[in-house]
Amino acid sequence: MMRLFINSLAASAGGGLTYIRNVVPHLAVRPDLRVTIALSSDLRKEFREFSNINFLEIDGTVSWRFWHEQSTLPRLIRSCQADVLLSTGNFALRRPGVPQILLSRNSVYTSADFYRDLRARHEYRIWVDTHLRAVLARRSILWADCTVAPSEAFAAELRRWTGKPIHPIHHGFDREAFFCDTTPLAADVQARLEGSDPAIRLLFVSHYNYYRNFETLIRALPLLRRLLPGRTVRLFLTCKLRAGENPGSYDPHAAAELVKELSVSDMVVELGAIPYGQLHQLYRQSNVYVTPAYTETFAHPLVEAMACGLPIVASDLAVHREICGDAAIYFPRFSAQVLAEQIAEIVQSKDLANQLSQAGGTRSTAFSWRQHVDELISLASSVLEKTIRS
Question: What values do phi and psi take at 135, rounded to 5?
Fold first, then answer.
């Protein structure tokens, strides 16, 4: 039996939360594993039913967490008699005492677009902080015995960045788990959806951050008005464009001001965060899924949208093409004009919308959390065996 220690202290929002929420149930049913997971006390509440997994609750600030991990986790790993460490949050332990697999899934560290964006916004503090984190992320890949990326496109980027071998293992999708929650959407959210009828509903699932490129999407809205005369368009966001309403330190002020400047306040509906289990209801009440992100590693909402039958318009990134294939149409990542044209094309062509919807339903079946866990554990066994032989 392999004893696996998972460091998921970085799982606080977005893809990190989606990841740990989905892998824990599959780890819990593996008879060949004994699993210990370090995580925050808030996240621990979500896993009360998994009594066969040992959870260690550790809280602290982000800066405190890194140094605490380096000094404290090796001792905890030894006390659990772990065979392999899985570090899920981009940063590895320098001397964990056991073979270590690192999951690297943050593309801003290697994104020239992100650094340019920060300079244009005069976000010099975040620019410096990202550079420092990038140094640690790169060193982490050098420290780890093996690094896993969630897509081949991002794995190739990491190989160019570090010169090290990187193993691509797609993140998964659990259709049964995703659709099982029948709890209705909050009454105010449902009312805002129903109040938009008969509008064309565009959906973008993301908390606000700079690399998701909200501003290009907002700039496309007045263009859509001209391309779709007589049609009402609403863009639904699962965030609020107000300071303090989103995880992290990204300032949504510029996006909010752009909404006012372009006179599209009537087109933007800020729903705020939607519970993960209820997201499928939001997808299914939308007409087109859009993502203008200018850097990405996997993009879980794309798989979720495909599984819900939504046609997709995505920025032309190698990652997006790898995930969606022919289930999406693509636009240059900073072109609001082409984005608007692609959305209008789907709205005006039922055949194209149906084609994308059907392709997405098929494509979504290619992703499986069970398969992801199987491949990850197989890799862990190989790393452990190699360590024992050496």
Answer: -60, -45
Give the closest residue to 297 by CA, choosing from 127, 114, 143: 114
Per-residue pLDDT band at 13 (split at 50, 70, 90):
low
Q: Which residues contact 168 (CB under 8 A, 6 or more apart)?
A: 148, 149, 150, 151, 152, 154, 155
Could you give the domains of the chain? 2-172+368-382 (3.40.50.2000), 175-364 (3.40.50.2000)
115/136 Cα distance (integer angstroms):
17
Residue 65's pLDDT is: 65
Count of Cβ atoms closer than 10 Å to residue 81 Cβ = 11
Rounded distance between C-alpha atoms, residue 22 and residue 149, angstroms:
17
The whole-number average pLDDT for the span 194-199 is 86
Confidence at 377, pLDDT banded by 50, 70, 90? very high
Q: What percent of the chain has pLDDT over 90?
A: 80
Q: Which of 64-78, 93-107, 162-176 has the lowest mean pLDDT?
A: 64-78
- Distant-in-sequence contacts of 65-74, Cβ < 8 A, 24+ apart: 65/9, 65/10, 66/91, 66/136, 69/7, 69/9, 69/93, 70/94, 73/7, 73/38
Rounded CA separation 390/387 (Å): 5
